[in-house]
């Protein structure tokens, strides 16, 4: 299938690591050769998944004169662990990398400029929010409180380990390969970014340069402003230090009030972290790739909201629909399902017979529902793993997507044929056992249990 575009979604547990090969898209030595790109490399599920994925990736790439494997472009959608944890120096020293694109929000120069003046990007309030959230979560992590698996995973999103991956991406990979990291934003294309291609175009649809305006709103959110104003590392440490014997309680506050203060500080810290987490998702790089009359959409973890509101905090999907909607209304032939199948990352309405909504209009535009299943032409993949978060993946969403796609899978039938209980180790069995018989997009976790080679392949 040398004349077809290939997408390989590696099984990294809960995370994204996606390889795309575009046939004969670049010139080398007087001939056209395939273009090789990687979108993200991260996981919540452990290093062994990432090591296996990178090893498989290396085997798919051509060898260079230096003996390394050629990777023409790395795209990093956003800074979360499940998208960057695999960018380890030991793993990536085997690659010769031609270009690296990262979200405009990831530019380390933004911190030096306090969020302003770097290629026109405005992110001062977004950076302040991130700093407060990071301090809060790292302080919370240092207390070693028993907060449950999901909360521990959320807190670790702000861990120091992410700093190491960011350093690899923003400094080490560029230096090792003699290239410049490009911090991309909506409105740019591969040509603008110094990456000429033949027969293919890569467009950046998000994030917008004015991050504060579009994703936080023209004025600070009153709740976040109040939380940030009341939050200091010192007050946080005093309120959260645990345990505190009765004899050491502050003299000017009752035991019940002290515990209430501690609870409020925890709530404030988590509220800041949730807002920062959403902000980072909404600054995901979104790419549309055009090749051979096909349109592919890679969306990172971009979120959606009910409807676009100018000057208010918006989801990235809503901003894109209102500013770049013409590039979505043409529909897509491939969708990388966002945020591992979470309901917050694929705009939709869960009642197909309900009133029209902006979110529903977006999904109907990019993946129109065919009159009959046999008429479906688009494909999609979700890189997911049931077991960590209850809403991921959202069953009803994947069922809806399954009605819009070809190459879907009835996992109940596949399970029976293979003699494999796909839900054997799932603590959310009750959420899926009555739903497995519905056609749905290909899932990396279930395909692994059914004997995949460590990735899901789609050909266009």
From the structure above, extract its key features.
globular, 17 helices, seven-stranded mixed β-sheet, six-stranded mixed β-sheet, 460 residues, Metallo-beta-lactamase domain-containing protein, Metallo-beta-lactamase, Chain A, alpha/beta
Can you describe what's shown?
The chain has 460 residues and is of the alpha/beta class. It has 2 domains: 359 residues, 4-Layer Sandwich (Metallo-beta-lactamase, Chain A); 95 residues, no CATH class. Helix content is 36%, strand content 16%. The chain has 17 helices and 15 strands. A 7-stranded mixed β-sheet has the order 8-7-5-3-2-1-15. A 6-stranded mixed β-sheet has the order 9-10-11-12-13-14. The longest helix is centred in the middle third of the chain and has 28 residues. It is globular. This is Metallo-beta-lactamase domain-containing protein. It holds the Pfam family Lactamase_B. It comes from Labrys miyagiensis.
Top CATH class of the largest domain: Alpha Beta
- CATH homology-level superfamily of the largest domain: Ribonuclease Z/Hydroxyacylglutathione hydrolase-like
- What's the CATH topology label of the largest domain? Metallo-beta-lactamase, Chain A
In total, the number of strands is 15
Radius of gyration: 23 Å
How many DSSP helices?
17
Distance between termini?
A: 10 Å
- The percent range for strand residues is 15-25%
Mean pLDDT score, rounded? 88
Cα shape? globular
Main beta sheet strand tally, sense and closure = 7 strands, mixed
**How do the strands line up in the largest sheet?**
8-7-5-3-2-1-15
- Helix proportion: 25-40%
Tally of separate domains: 2
Q: At CATH's second level, what is the architecture of the largest domain? A: 4-Layer Sandwich
Any low-confidence stretches, pLDDT <50, length ≥5? none
Structural class comes to alpha/beta
Organism: Labrys miyagiensis
Domain Metallo-beta-lactamase: 35-88
Protein name: Metallo-beta-lactamase domain-containing protein
């Amino acid at each position: 299938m040398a004349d077809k575009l290939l997408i390989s979604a590696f099984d990294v547990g809960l995370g994204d690591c996606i390889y795309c090969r575009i046939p004969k898209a670049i010139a080398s030595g007087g001939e056209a050769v395939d273009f090789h790109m990687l979108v993200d490399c991260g996981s919540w599920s452990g290093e062994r998944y990432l090591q296996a994925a990178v090893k498989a990736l290396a085997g798919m790439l051509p060898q260079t004169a230096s003996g390394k494997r050629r990777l023409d472009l790395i795209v990093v959608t956003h800074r979360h662990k499940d998208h960057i944890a695999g960018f380890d120096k030991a793993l990536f020293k085997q690659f010769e990398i031609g270009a690296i694109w990262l979200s405009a929000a990831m530019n380390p120069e933004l911190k030096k400029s306090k969020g302003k003046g770097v290629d026109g990007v405005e992110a001062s309030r977004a950076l302040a929010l991130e700093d407060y959230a990071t301090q809060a979560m790292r302080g919370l992590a240092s207390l070693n409180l028993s907060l449950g698996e999901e909360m521990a995973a959320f807190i670790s999103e702000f861990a120091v380990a992410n700093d190491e991956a960011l350093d690899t991406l923003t400094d080490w990979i560029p230096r090792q390969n003699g290239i410049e990291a490009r911090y991309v934003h909506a409105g740019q294309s591969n040509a603008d970014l110094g990456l000429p291609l033949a027969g293919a175009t890569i467009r950046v649809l998000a994030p917008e340069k004015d991050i504060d305006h579009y994703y936080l709103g023209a004025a600070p959110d009153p709740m976040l402003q109040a939380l940030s104003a009341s939050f200091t590392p010192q007050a946080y440490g005093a309120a959260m230090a645990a345990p505190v014997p009765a004899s050491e309680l502050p003299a000017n506050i009752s035991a019940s009030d002290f515990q209430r203060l501690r609870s409020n500080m925890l709530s404030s810290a988590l509220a800041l972290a949730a807002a920062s987490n959403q902000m980072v998702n909404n600054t995901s790089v979104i790419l549309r790739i055009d090749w051979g009359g096909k349109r592919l959409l890679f969306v990172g973890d971009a979120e959606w909201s009910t409807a676009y509101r100018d000057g208010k905090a918006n989801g990235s999907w809503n901003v894109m629909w209102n500013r770049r909607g013409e590039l979505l209304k043409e529909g897509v032939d491939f969708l990388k399902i966002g945020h591992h199948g979470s309901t917050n990352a694929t705009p939709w309405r869960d009642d197909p017979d309900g009133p029209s909504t902006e979110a529903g209009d977006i999904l109907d535009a990019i993946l129109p529902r065919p009159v009959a299943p046999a008429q479906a032409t688009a494909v999609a993949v979700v890189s997911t793993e049931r077991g960590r978060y209850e809403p991921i993946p959202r069953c009803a969403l994947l069922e809806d997507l399954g009605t819009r796609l070809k190459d879907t899978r009835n996992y109940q039938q596949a399970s029976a044929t293979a003699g494999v209980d796909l839900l054997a180790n799932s603590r959310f069995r009750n959420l899926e056992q009555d739903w497995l018989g519905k056609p749905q997009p290909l899932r990396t976790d279930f395909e692994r249990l059914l004997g995949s080679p460590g990735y899901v392949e789609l050909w266009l």
